[in-house]
Amino acid sequence: MRKNIKTSKQKTKEETVKLLWEDFKKRQEERKPFETQWQLNLNFLLGNQYCDVSADQIKNDYEKQFFWEERGVFNHIAPLVETRISKLTKVRPVMTVVPASGDEDDLGSAKVSKNILDSVQNKLNIQNLISSATKWSEVCGTSFYKVVWNDKSGQIIGMDSDGTKIYEGEVDVIVCSPFEIYPDSNTAEDISQCKSIIHAKSYDADIVEKLWNVKVEGCDMDTISLSNVQQNGGFSRSFKTAKIFKTLKHNQVMVLEKYETPSKKYPNGRMLVVAGDNLIYDGELPYKNLKNGERGLPFVRQISVEQPSLFWGTSVIERMIPVQRAYNAVKNRKHEFINRLSMGILTVEDGSVDVDVLEEEGLSPGKVLVYRQGSATPKMLTLDNVPSNFSEEEIRLQNEFENISGITDFFNSSSINLDNLSGVALELIIEQEDARISSTGESINFAVKNISQQILRLYKQFAVYERMGRIVGKNGKSEFFFWNRSDITSDDIVFDTETEVGRSIAQKRTMILDLLKLGILADENGKLTNSMRNKILQLLGFGIWEDALDEREIQIQNARNENVKFATNEDVEVLEIHNHDLHIQTHISYMLSGDFEKDCSRDVLLKEKMLEHIREHKRFKKLEIESEKQLINNEV
Fold this sequence. Notes:
By secondary structure, this protein is α+β, with helices and mostly antiparallel strands. 46% of the residues lie in helices and 19% in strands. It has 17 helices and 19 strands. The strands form 7 sheets. Strands 8, 9, 10, 11, 12 and 13 form a 6-stranded antiparallel β-sheet that branches. A hairpin with a 5-residue loop joins β10 and β11 (238-260). α12 (530-539) packs antiparallel against α13 (543-549). The radius of gyration is 34 Å and the shape is extended.
């Protein structure tokens, strides 16, 4: 009986694996037209521009028809894409958390949630992840973030019975290229409209055994790779360019992770993990990453240009490819014409000269050309100058590049006369140009917002134990804070500050200086406060330098660090160099906050320690006052 039950379970597992692989292959076929377009985009970006898309793969466009045919590549796509990426790297939104209510506890919880986001951004280096995803979305049109919980990350909190380390766990954000993602429908306009997504990635067999403790035999597997390929130019000249093609990787195992949204059959969703023919996991969807604790797909999509009724975005490279082909053709035909002008075309009578020697050696300077007596004298064929149509078409194509990419070089543009434009007019032109790529910047903004929401929801779900977070404060110093999942009462994320796409550092400084001249930043007495002065210098790029010279800020920061040391049961000493008034104010503010009450629950002696520390500051202050009075009396 037990044997029959075991056999039945084994058959069920095999059937599950078989159905998943069939589903994966079906999605591969449906996505193939988009994948070949991405490969074509990569080839044109890298300079391999004499290729085209066939039904299922990248193939060569055509071969040279004549030995003298010019096949040069004049890559305008790469610098334009690099410029777009550099502009989009300025989009770094700062998130803040809206309190669930106006209650003091909710205000404190929102502050803790904001600190958690800041801490995670520093820990995971979110800025680099955004840059990596932006490169993929600009080249292929779409990129993805995968927000998951890693239970083998974070601080070690203990050991289990067999000596395995137990970690507190951390959120992990992974950038996924579009080649790894297989939605159930290519016509869904967003991830929220997908019922399931398969994340397919090849791993080395040893890594699979290490991660999932499953022994799987590896095999050779096709993968996209990069290699140099030699192409021919005119007159047997050759050049090398990078080419995207499929190559073999050895000892590889394809791992499929299928995420299904909740349904009637699976109320909590379903997650399948298959490595080769082995079923590693079959259970409910583990992440409560949607509103009100609902379970959803752990992916965030970022696009370059949105397409209606399509899951995949469009890259500007796809639009520039026809222009790039035409530009290469014009430049090459122009150079062929110049070659004819510079090298000349010699007409000779049949049999009058040794044609073989003439073709091999050409007409070198000082060459003695011998021809048969009585025959016509060899002469050069007269050619006109290079037609102006070549140059005109070249300029038109360059303008098309700018129109399609949304990037304009004003200083080299012949259509704009900068001498006759005012500063306001230039600002309007720049704003108009930036508006053309602002939709891509908005996609980055909302992707970061979605990631931030999922981070807080995963911590709310999995952060069981109390944790200590660290954020970088002023002067580059670290500020520590304690929190647990009960402190996360709101995941309503809004943009605190948005970095505009085209807003340069010089423009920001000009705007701040204009506000300063108008007196808007001054107080009611027309003067700048120390805090406002520090904030202005920070925005101008000198905040750290100014803070290092501002004793008041240093004293306050030192007192805050003392508060953290008290909370962690470290010794704190009162020194003569302390500004006792500032220290007393900072310590009292800490004791009146909700954080102090939570810290007292861990250390019952904390309240008395803080009060005694404040009394010691007051004694030092009293001694300083008496010392100053004694000094005045002695002088009198």
